[in-house]
Amino acid sequence: MVTVIIYSVCVYFATIGFGLLINLPRKALNMAGIVSLIGWLVFHTVNVHMGGYLAADILGTFTVGILSIFASRYKKMPVIIFNIPALVPLVPGGQAYQVMKCLAIGNYALAKSNLIQVIFIAGGIASGFLFAEFLNQLYLRLKTYLRTKKATR
């Protein structure tokens, strides 16, 4: 439990640090940290209790996507301001490093295995964002349809 708290604090501050690095507006930093923290907690919970990094990445990224949409509406800012920094804890940097290391030392079988993991994780991240945006568009179209239907009565 203590390690999860320590990791959570590190994820929050790493996201804020990355946000400072890419010049996010100051008023978006705290919200980006919160979005990232919740997305990482979903990722961690699914990864630990369900035992799959791919499902964990998809659900974590989906959570980040949905929360970024809500944060952007709350702060009246573009969604990408919250998506990009919140994605940092979910990016497979360790596996990508292992791919390059294995290629450098000539261990091509392990490099291939790690590369496949990186590709699946990247696909999971893309799928999570795609599904979050799909639900957002579905909600907006349904809301518009119901307004027009109500106005024609």
Summarize the structure.
Its main location: membrane. Keywords: Cell inner membrane, Cell membrane, Membrane, Transmembrane, Transmembrane helix. The protein has 153 residues and is mostly helical.
What does the model show?
Belongs to the ThrE exporter (TC 2.A.79) family. Residues 9-134 form the Threonine/Serine exporter ThrE domain. The chain crosses the membrane at residues 6-22, 29-46, 52-72, 79-98, 118-140. It is a single chain. The protein is mostly helical and 153 residues long. The protein has one domain (2-151). It is 86% helix and 0% strand. Helix 1 (2-21) packs antiparallel against helix 2, helix 2 runs antiparallel to helix 3 and helix 3 (53-75) crosses helix 6 (108-151).
Cα-based radius of gyration, to the nearest Å: 18 Å
Strand percentage lies at: under 5%
- Give the structural class: mainly alpha
Largest sheet: none
Record field, number of beta strands? 0
What's the helix count?
Answer: 6
Number of domains: 1
- Outline the low-pLDDT stretches: none
Q: State the helical fraction.
A: over 70%
Write the element-wise H/E pattern from the N-terminal end onward. HHHHHH
State the end-to-end distance.
Answer: 56 Å
Rounded average pLDDT: 93
Q: What is the molecular shape?
A: globular
